[in-house]
């Protein structure tokens, strides 16, 4: 991861980091990367490990590496809740781990700065001794628009927060990097996990891309990570609802805004929801079309999902500038 992000910084691009839980996602991401010659970051969450099981997840990623030997692939563990989780991922062969010390190990309660530094520094010592990279997180993901925390912390809608708490503090960021030596830093700029980020197309007061510039002025050599970076494709939202779904109107992070963030040091862009929506839309559409009413071979609708995901991956590789850099 560190080598890839250093290279991306030198060439002023970012790499989308896609969450994976199954074979079709891995294949879609790899097929797209192969088509445009991009390096790849595959990431597994605690949820993906409990869905697929650690050996299946590990072997899916090893299969990707084996089938595409010409593409650099990072196997990253997303949102580790405590150092022990990161230790197990290092043992399992991940080349990069995230210690998310912005929350306590329940992954709900915001933590103190000192706790965050302590757990992250311990993971960096352990991981770097094994040649594994570390991502830390400083600040709370949530929505500036509602003043609520996002899915990440699980707080209810009445939990109003001071907006400033939702933006990574530049002084703290400098101190965090100095004390932990993380390879990449996830920062809070107004995004949140999941589909429900913004109730209207986001403006600068709720999606603080300009805050990245402030952080970069203080930390010109730090690689920033944007979490909650799905764009929530409106066409897939429509398709899901046209074929029996019921998802409320919602907006994500526009690709153009992410591209502006890349000018201010964003090097890794986490995307999960967009591929989930493409999968759900493609499968609903396939099965809902009258001409497919008698089909029962799941490979047909899995293939539709893979094709839908591949198109999104390919357009992100191109937009973020990683295409051509494998
Ligand atoms: O960070 C959140 C990712 O979207 C992973 O979600 O925990 O449901 O696998 P998950
Ligand atoms: P989205 O829910 O916006 O896809 O974010 C995913 C993420 O940040 C995973 O760590
Ligand atoms: Na991560
Ligand atoms: Zn995340």
Low-pLDDT stretches are 152-161
Annotated CATH homologous superfamily: Aldolase class I
Would you report the number of β strands? Answer: 10
Instruction: Could you tell me the CATH topology label.
Output: TIM Barrel
Question: What summary fits the major beta sheet?
Answer: 8 strands, parallel, barrel
Name given to the CATH architecture: Alpha-Beta Barrel
Enzyme class: lyase
Binding site for Zn(2+) 1: 79, 193, 227
InterPro entries: Aldolase_TIM (IPR013785), Class_II_FBP_aldolase (IPR050246), FBA_II (IPR000771), Fruct_bisP_Calv (IPR006412)
Organism: Methylophaga nitratireducenticrescens
TL;DR of this structure?
This protein has 326 residues and is α/β, with parallel strands linked by helices.
Your description of this structure?
Catalyzes the aldol condensation of dihydroxyacetone phosphate (DHAP or glycerone-phosphate) with glyceraldehyde 3-phosphate (G3P) to form fructose 1,6-bisphosphate (FBP) in gluconeogenesis and the reverse reaction in glycolysis. One of its GO terms (biological process) is glycolytic process. This is Fructose-1,6-bisphosphate aldolase. Belongs to the class II fructose-bisphosphate aldolase family. Pathway: Carbohydrate degradation; glycolysis; D-glyceraldehyde 3-phosphate and glycerone phosphate from D-glucose: step 4/4. With 326 residues, this protein is α/β, with parallel strands linked by helices. The protein has a single domain, classed as TIM Barrel, CATH 3.20.20.70. It is 45% helix and 14% strand. The chain has twelve helices and ten strands. The strands form two sheets. It has an eight-stranded parallel beta barrel with strand order 1-2-3-4-5-8-9-10, surrounded by ten helices. A two-stranded antiparallel ribbon has the order 6-7. Helix 9 runs parallel beside helix 11 and helix 11 runs antiparallel to helix 12. The two termini are 13 Å apart. The site of sodium ion has 7 residues, from strand 3.
């Amino acid at each position: 991861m560190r080598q890839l992000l250093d290279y991306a910084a030198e060439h002023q691009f970012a790499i989308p980091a896609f969450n994976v839980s199954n074979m079709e996602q891995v294949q879609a991401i790899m097929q797209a990367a192969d088509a445009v010659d991009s390096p790849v970051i595959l990431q597994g969450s605690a949820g993906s490990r409990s869905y697929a099981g650690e050996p299946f997840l590990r072997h899916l990623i090893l299969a990707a590496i084996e089938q595409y030997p010409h593409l650099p692939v990072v196997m990253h563990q997303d949102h580790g809740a405590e150092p022990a989780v990161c230790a197990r991922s290092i043992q399992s062969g991940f080349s990069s781990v995230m210690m998310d010390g912005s929350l306590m190990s329940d992954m709900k309660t915001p933590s103190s700065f000192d706790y965050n530094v302590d757990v992250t520094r311990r993971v960096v010592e352990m991981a770097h001794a094994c040649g594994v990279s570390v991502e830390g997180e400083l600040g709370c993901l949530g929505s500036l628009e509602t003043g609520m925390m996002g899915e990440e912390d699980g707080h209810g809608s009445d939990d109003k927060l001071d907006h400033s708490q939702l933006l990574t503090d530049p002084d703290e960021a400098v101190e965090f990097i100095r004390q932990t030596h993380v390879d990449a830093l996830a920062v809070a700029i107004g995004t949140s996990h999941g589909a429900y980020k913004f109730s209207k197309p986001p403006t600068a007061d709720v999606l603080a891309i300009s805050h990245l510039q402030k952080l970069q002025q203080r930390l010109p050599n730090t690689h920033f990570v944007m979490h909650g970076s799905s764009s929530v494709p409106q066409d897939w939202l429509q398709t899901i609802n046209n074929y029996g779904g019921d998802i409320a109107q919602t907006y994500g992070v526009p690709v153009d805004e992410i591209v502006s963030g890349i000018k201010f040091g964003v090097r890794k862009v986490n995307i999960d929801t967009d591929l989930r929506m493409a999968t759900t839309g493609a499968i609903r559409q396939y099965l809902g079309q009258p001409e497919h009413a008698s089909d029962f071979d799941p490979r047909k609708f899995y293939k539709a999902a893979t094709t839908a995901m591949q198109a999104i991956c390919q357009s992100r590789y191109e937009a973020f500038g990683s295409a051509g850099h494998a």
